[in-house]
Amino acid sequence: MTGFHGLHVTIGVLAIVAVLWRSRVPGHYSNEKHFGIEAAEIYWHFVDVIWIILFGLLYLL
């Protein structure tokens, strides 16, 4: 469990770093072109939902 948690946090942090790195280029992200930002955001929401489910299953039941 701890290893999976660390893996997912590492992946999420790398996604955020990738977004930050690509944002250095002017015009890389725009109102129409922002998939990297959206993908990192969706990933963290996925991790949040899975965490809530696992917390309920492992600690509350």
Automatic annotation (TrEMBL):
Give the PANTHER family listed for this entry.
CYTOCHROME BO(3) UBIQUINOL OXIDASE SUBUNIT 3, CYTOCHROME C OXIDASE SUBUNIT III
Transmembrane spans: 6-21, 42-60
* Predominant place of localization: membrane
Q: InterPro entries per the record?
A: Cyt_c/ubiquinol_Oxase_su3 (IPR024791), Cyt_c_oxidase-like_su3 (IPR000298), Cyt_c_oxidase_su3-like_sf (IPR035973), Cyt_c_oxidase_su3_a-hlx (IPR013833)
Similarity remark: Belongs to the cytochrome c oxidase subunit 3 family.
Q: Where is the Heme-copper oxidase subunit III family profile domain?
A: 1-61
Q: Name one Pfam family in it.
A: COX3
Query: Is Transmembrane among the key words of this record?
Result: yes
| Cellular localisation | Cell membrane
Q: What is this protein called?
A: Heme-copper oxidase subunit III family profile domain-containing protein
Keywords, ordered alphabetically: Cell membrane, Membrane, Transmembrane, Transmembrane helix
Bilayer topology annotation: Multi-pass membrane protein
